[in-house]
Records
---
Amino acid sequence: CSMGSDDSYNFVFKVVLIGESGVGKSNLLSRFTKNEFAHDSRTTIGVEFSTRTVQIDNLTIKAQIWDTAGLERYRAITSAYYRGAVGALLVYDISKHLTYESAERWLKELYDHADPHIVVMLVGNKSDLDTLRTVPTDEARDFAEKKGLMFMETSALGSTNVEAAFSEVLTAIHKKVASREVTRGSISAVTLSSPLGPSSEAQEERKGCCRS
Amino acid sequence: TTRNIVRLHSWSGIPREVRPITWRLLSGYLPANKERRELVLKRKREEYFRFIEQYYHSRTDEHYKDTYRQIHIDIPRTNPLIPLFQQPAVQEIFERILFIWAIRHPASGYVQGINDLVTPFFVVFLSEFVTEDMENFDVAALPLETQRNIEADSFWCMSKLLDGIQDNYTFAQPGIQNKVKALEELVSRIDEDIHNHFKRYEVEYLQFAFRWMNNLLMRELPLRCTIRLWDTYQAEAEGFSRFHLYVCAAFLIKWRKEILSMVDFQGLLMLLQNLPTIHWGNEEVGLLLAEAYRLKYMFADAPSHYKR
């Protein structure tokens, strides 16, 4: 099976969605966790949350995805939002250059609040709007490379690359944890202990439904 | 006074036919003095449209274009499931109301959530002219003057409401931070089980109650229930700014069984952000308000007796 049962997993990875208002963060979340797209979704207020369990390298990973409002004023509440996050998708809209220009500002905020080892992917969403494109792919890819970010263009509407974007991020997180590239007390502690609740402690000992 | 009598009778719900006039009175928009009403209405409506003439064109100015852009992308996302709100005439009304309010209140400006707060007023004032199937009513078919009156009245009543909760929307939203803290404190006193359950699974009140405060429960309840709720909020002194806290506490306790049976963080948050109120009507809101009133009586009016 490719989806683990809901209460057996080896790791919980908290991933946050950030970026300007209206770039499609909520629809990336619903496409990934429920395979749904809403043309009529309401603005996100505060934080919203969803999960999906996936298999990576024979391990069951529970991806806990946090979505937040893109409007400036809310950022006051978002330090709790970043706490414990091990991955981030920094989303812009390929048809709205302004949303791309603010990437640097979002990146700064992310590094101000989150674990320094956090895995970050720059995501150009709404790739279905190619005829209205104002952000060239190469430009965004170069920027991502320069900043040490992963990069992908997605369409939550067309269901293009959404799965790929999340699973690349989750795989990269897992590699970081597994390779012990980071020291104890940093990313491994964040993933393996309490921020996600007692039920997620000592997860390596838990049996997943799909483990051989 | 007249207003007090109206308050007393409105607390337990206002009949549909008299709701528009009653809301205009309770919000403080219309004077209680009957002779002055016509004149005040006329003056205020003119005043609003003078603001439009003077300021609405500035939405393209460098200084205001971010505000306008945000309002513009949020309007189609306000009540997206109701056809009424997809009409260009209605969206333009909302844009004007929100833009004018935002530039007249620079300390807060436009904050997401404020867009929702126009809706109940607009619907109630429109209801004077629509007998059935409001959700599909064509607003552009109304006489222009009627449309304008609905718009101006919605603007002024929304402004009155926001005057009482401005610190919800000023920088860093201190009003909301304080109310969420107050909710946590209140719940710890009235229902230790729920409070400890949240602690145990590391659910923070801010994670779900931020939206309850920011949008006055409008995201958690069907629109008809919000309208009923606002009958009471406007009848109650400091309804939106203080009584709402007790309503939120009563609302949380209402789901006690469901909350306590959920034994992981994920499940709890998913429950709390999708509470099943879709079939709620006046009866459920009435019970909620009665419980909130009880809590207010016990904890606001005599807090020391019940302190742990």
---
Amino acid sequence: MTRVVVVLFFLVAATRSARAQPSDAGVPDAPPADAAPADAAPADAPPPPPPLPVPTPATPSPACDGTLDGHVVDAVTHDAIAAATVTVGSELLAQTDDHGRFTLTRVCPGELVFVVERADYNPATQAIQAAHGAIEIEMTSLASETIEIREKAPAPTEMRSTAEISGARLERTRGKGFSTALADVPGVSELRSATGVAKPIIRGQFGRRLLILVDGIRHRSQEWGLDHAPEIDPFIADKIQVVRGAGGVRYGSDAIGGVVLVEPPPLRWQPGYSGEAHLIGSSNGRGGTFAGRLQAASDRAPGLSTQIEGSVKRLAAAETPTYALDNTGLFDVGVSATVGYRRNNAEYKISYRRYQARLGVCACLRIHNIDDFLAQAELGEPLGADAFTSDFEIDRPYQTVAHDTALVRGQWDRDHLGTVTATYSFQHDLRREYDVVRNAATAGAQFNFRLMSHELEAVFEHNPIHLSEHWHLRGAAGVVGGAQIHHYSGLQLVPDFTSIGGGVYVTERLIGHSTDVELGLRYDLLARDASLERIDFLRLVRSGQLAAGACTDPGADQVTCASRFHTFAGSLGAKQQIGGAWSIKGELSVASRAPNTDEQYINGAAPTFPVLGLGKPDLDPETTYSSSATVAYDGQRLKLEASAYANAIDDYIYFGPAIGADGMPIFDVLIRGTFPRFSTKAVDALFYGADGGIEVAPIPALELGAQASLVRAKNADDGSYLAFVPSDHYRGSITYHPPDLGPVRKSFVTVSGTYATRQKRFDLAADFIAPPPAYFLLGAELGTETTIADQTVRFALQGANLTNARYRDYTSLMRYFADEPGWQLWLRMSVFFDSTSHPKGT
Amino acid sequence: MRGTLMLSALITIAACGEDGGSTNSQEVITTVTLTFTKAGSTPVTAEFDDPDGDGGDPPTVQPVELSAGMYTMTVGFENRLSSPSESITPEVMDESDVHLVLFTGTAVVGPASPTTSGPLTQSYGDMDANGLPVGLTNTVVAAAGTGTLTVTLRHLPPEEPPVKATDTLSLAKEGGLDAIGGSTDATVDFMVTVR
């Protein structure tokens, strides 16, 4: 059925040895149609002749000291071709890497004839004369009646330190929260709230300074609240990528702390169906999770692909070693449906996702009055802990969240230009918080947040432009636009707002055989109108935060205060490969983030802590100047990555204790007692640190791993320490892979330990209570895989905090009230099925 | 851009209404009023008032100025943020089994106060359905002296075992308010002078 179309042409091999040929010998930049030699076969010609006979390479001799850098690309798009084999004669000499590269060493002088092959391409044959230099080989793809979109070359390596969680590593986190899945990455920790769910902290930055992209769309929610965890079902991810460091150019100028990319699995295009199902039981919380995904494509509807998935998780309140964290039960549901369609050089996707959760807040929380709060914090255990129980019932206080995302995406390939991708998305985030109420008749939530976000993005990625055999240019340019509406109701807290924003960016990368240099620029504009209740407006004016004339219509019921922010981002990065396994990369960047409305307009008791919060309406964007250097070794038995960074943030928007003229903290009298005053202010902050990991396999069956994360953060204005900066974390693990036993394969046993030091760098006025002591946690996991009815089934038993240690974590809001959960076991069963019955492996 | 705005406006309109914040008004207290009544004389009142709620203007507090003698002291709670202003006292009375007003400070000798000598000697004058004191109505004997009077409205949730119990006051007296459960809805200080 497949009509093989053959266009075979070689584009030349210009080598740059001592007797270098003129560099225009290869016409690499000319459009391939024009460049094709006259003998190129017509489209319906018979299959190509077999590869040219090649001589056996000369046997190595002292003169054979040449090094040849090869690069294999698609003749039309100039995209790199990975995993192609390079043979000379009958000898397999190399395989191309992800970037289409290969290197031959000990090359002898004289003619060498290569054959480069990959299943979906016509074999390419090329003869060269030199022992040194660079060679570029172009391949033409096998065309068929149903034109398949060629698999794109992977995105170029990030210049920042990155980590990818996928496959077995991702599976290990199934059944746990979204941010727990990331916490294995060096430099990442969690900010746990009093509901037990958490948000990630990357190198000391979290919340609004951290972007989370789900399927390429920026997750828009109430990320400012310390106790607001991202509303994301971790099961939708096939791969999670963590970019440590400012990702301002590509993802939004406010990504000054880092970026988390949650990527769903690629759709299935091959006729048939496949999917996975996970059943997870959890001992602490006596609950579990069920999650499944089904992908299908049919040959009766060529080019069409569908996917549905869903997950349900239900847990009772967790238990510490000595008492239950009463009321911390959880019930969440995630569903999604996606349809994809491919035709010619275009691909379309439409997708809808919903996540909803009901999260109980620990009954141990006491935040309505500072005296109650401090008294509680000094007790060893929560007041009334004897009566705490672990049940599924969720009473006040609790939160409900629902997050809907709809997206439409089109992607068009233009052979000689590149790819255009356009995405429209709509997100609806609804969060309701139900506080303990005095009046039993009070129904409903005390805090209701509704955020609607429309976003439109168009990106053009041009095909690699070949500057020479050695260098080519890859890049993209994009425009983004969006509108947001925020509606808040309930107890006095934050204003409503509407905003419109847009941005443009361009990024170009010069790629050589072992050197990459990347430059990016971005500009964003945000126009936001906050709509304040008249009483809140007057309150801001009376407390001296806002000038009476700063907003329009000060006499109306709703007063509108407009803000306009212009923000820029820029980055310059370089990467150098040294030998086969070592690489170093470095990056310098600038990014700025506009303030949020809570930072501008908060005036009243803060929702998480018993403090009186005062915002600063005239805040300017904060700007970070960051630098990082990463060294990596990627060998057979040893892998390591270590990274050091320093970020200076100008006008860092910091919510911290207000200090009076006398140098003492300011207190305010409220009807619930005397509260410390916290204000939003612009300070100069400095964040620096290092993190890294190493994995060694002294023998194939044994793996040893170690990681370290260190972060330091200071208010450069007065030398005080910033709050919620994680203490030093160290992690070590040993994994043993026993030999396969009949149908039981890929078994493993892992024992791991995590040590967190006590945070010694803190500001008591901001933290209230000195940080908790250091702790050590022991974990273990055993797992195996087998085949049942031709489908892959995996089993795993995982344990955490196996010594049942009592501990509190510095970056957990729970630390003021109660211990963290005690020992915990998860039992997982995962089935990976495929109608074509080829067991899916990772 | 205009199209997006209009679309946004439509969504906003559709979204309004259901998130009504009005149910929250009885959760806010802005004002605590003490009224001292002595037979045959004009009642004396003292008010802690923060009419714009937390933040904004600081609250105003009137001093308590009494002559010696026996008084009936009533406590009133109000929300002046809502319009018209709303009395919270009937609600506290209705749910008196989970509420308790405590009187402490250097001016107060009484069931919850560890102070041994002060110008005011307080005793509870009301009871909830379980026969436990509430504290909206009290008897106070005033003698010459000065000090502070702290009035605390505590919400004691109806858990098992109930947080409000026969020993609640004596626990507070021995260990302070931190020794009893529940949460503080209001706690305000008054300066007291008895001539």
